[in-house]
Amino acid sequence: MVQGIATAALLLFAVGMIAIGLVSKKRAATVEGFVLGGRRVGPWMSAFAYGTTYFSAVIFVGYAGTHGWNIGIASLWIGIGNALIGCLVSWKLLAARTRRMTHVLSARTMPELLEGRYLSKRMKVFAACVIFVFLMPYAASVYKGLGMLFSSVFFPDLDPVTDPAFLGMSATNLCILIVALLTAAYLVLGGYAAIALSDFIQGIIMIAGVIILVIAMTMHPNVGGFGNVFSGLAKIDEGLIDVTGGSQWSFLLTNILLTSVGVFGLPQMAQKFYAIKDQASVRRATVVSTAFAMLIGCGAYYVGSLSRLVLSEMPKGGTDAIIPTMLMNAFSESIPGMILLAVILLLVLSASMSTLSSVVLTSATAITVDLVFQREKDEKKQIRVTRLFCLLFVACSFVFATFNFAIIVSIMSYSWGVVAGCFIGPYVWGLFSKRITRAGAWAGMLGAILTVASMTLYGTISNLGDITLYEAFSAASKNSPLYGVIAMGVSLVLVPVVSLLTQKYKYSEEHIEKVFSDVAA
Question: Which helix (H) or strand (E) holds 165?
C-alpha cells in the first residue's frame, strides 16, 4: 500500500516537472535565457531558487541524521547558521554587488565573472575545470542520499546496496537512475527558467513537508510531544540536550562554518544573484530566503535530533539510514501515515532536484560557455551543445553515485570544501576591493585546493597501518568538514596578502572604473 501511494504522488510530481520544462522552453531560446532566464527572475522565485538549491536530500538523509544522532539538540545551530549567515549575510553582502558586476561584465557564469574581473582567460579555464570536476561528486552525494531514502520506501525487504531490484541494479541505484532521468528532462527542456519556476513550486512542497515532518515526528509515541523532547533525550545522554554541543563544540562549529560560510563561494548559489531582475527585488528576496532557510534548516536538524528517541539502536545502514528508518517506522503502518510519508518523500525529492538542476546547469555551462564556445556566435548551436553537456554531467554523476564511496556527509563536505575554498577568496574580495590583483586571486584558488589535497594525503598516510588504503582514506575523510573550513580560510587570507605584495601588477584605472561602475541599477 505504501509503495502504491508513494508511486502515485511521484508520478504526479514527475508530470508537473516535465510540464514546467515544456512551458519554460520558450525562455530558453538564447544562451542567456537558458543560463539565467533572461536576468528577469523576480524576488520570490529568486529567493526560493536560492533556498531550494541550498538544501537537498543530503541535509535530511546525511547531515540531519548524522549530526542529530551524535550531537542532539545543538545540531539546530547548523540550521540557524545556514539561515543567518548562509542566507541573510550572503544576500546582504553579495547579491547587489554581484548583480551589478555581472551586468557590467556581461558575465553569465563564475568563470566569466573571474575572467572579466581579473582579465585572465587562464583563470576562466581553470575555474571551469574545477567546477565541472568537483561539482560531480557534489551531485553524486545528492543522488546517493535520495537513493538511500527511496530504496527504503519502495524496496524495504532488500539490502539497498547489494540486492538486485531491477535488471541487476540495486534498489538504491535504480532510484538514483529514475531521479537522474527526471532532472535531466525538465532541465534540458527549460534551462534556468524551468529551474526557477520548479524551485518555487518545490519550495512550497518543502515548506509543507517540513511542517508535517516536525509535527508528526514530535507526536511519535516514543517522543510524546514537544514537552517531552528534552527530558527524553536527557535520559539517553545528557550531552544530547547541551545547546553548546558539549565535548563536540568544535565539530559543531566546523560544520556551521562549512555549510554557512561555504555558500559564499559556491558558483551555483552565486548564479541566483546574476539572474535577479532589479535591486528592489534583492531586498525582498533577502527576507524570503532567510525565513525559508530558517524553517527548512532548523526543521531538518530538529527531526534529526529526535532520532535517538524514535530509534532504539543505530540502523543497519549506519548514519545514512537514520532518517529513512525513522520515516518507515513512523508512517508505514496506516493509510494516513502513508499519505504523510508520500508528502515527505516529495519534500526530499523537491529539495534534491532543485539542488541537482542548479549544479548540473552550473557545471555544464562551465564547459560550454567558458571553454567550448569562447568564439562561437551561433546561439542555437551553443544551446544544443549545452543541453548535451547537461546530459553528460547527469550521466557522469549517476555513475559516480553508484560507487561504494564513504558516507554521504564526507563526500559532500569534500566537494563543498574544494569548490567553496577555491572561489570564496577571489569572488568575495573581488567584489569589494579594487586592490585585489590577479596573483592574489590565483593564490587563493590554488592555495585552497592544495590545502584540501595535502591534508587529505597526510590524514590518509597517518591512518595507514594494518588497514587498506581505502579504509585509511575513509578514516581521513571524517575530517573533511575541517579541511573545507581551513581551505576557505586559506583562500580568504591569501587573496589580500598576495595582492598587497603584488601591487605593482595592479590593474589600470580604466579597468577598475569599469568593473566597479554602477550602471546596472
Answer: strand 164-166
Distance CA 459, CA 316 (A): 27
Evaluate whether 127 touches 423 at the Cβ level (below 8 Å): yes
Cell of 160: 539497498
Query: What sign does the CA torsion over 133, 498, 101, 264 have?
Result: positive
Give the three cell numbers for residue 437: 590583483
At residue 520, the pLDDT reads 44
Cell numbers for 195, please give them: 529551474
Give CA separation, 66 vs 56, 71, 245, 334, 497, in Å: 15, 8, 14, 27, 37
Nearest Cα to Cα of residue 337 among 215, 157, 232, 222: 215
User: How many C-beta atoms lie closer than 10 Å to residue 374's C-beta?
Assistant: 12
In 3-state terms, what secondary structure has residue 291? helix
In angstroms, what CA-CA distances link 419 with 69, 382, 436, 448, 476?
A: 28, 25, 20, 9, 19
Map 85-104 to HEC letters. Answer: HHHHHHHHHHHHHHHHHHHH
Would you call 510 exposed, middle or buried from its count of C-beta atoms within 10 A (0-12, 13-18, 19+)? exposed
Q: Is 75 left (phi over 0), alpha (psi -120 to 50) or beta?
A: alpha
For residue 163, which phi and psi values (nearest 5 degrees)?
Answer: -75, 130
What is the model's pTM? 0.82
Q: The C-alpha cell of 386 is what?
A: 549545452
Instruction: Answer whether 393's CB lies under 8 Å from 363's CB.
Output: yes
Say what the pLDDT of residue 521 is: 42
pLDDT in tens, 254-293: 889 988 998 999 888 888 888 788 788 888 999 999 999 9
Please write the tens of the pLDDT for every residue from 22-39.
Answer: 776 666 666 666 666 556
The pLDDT > 90 percentage for the chain reads 23
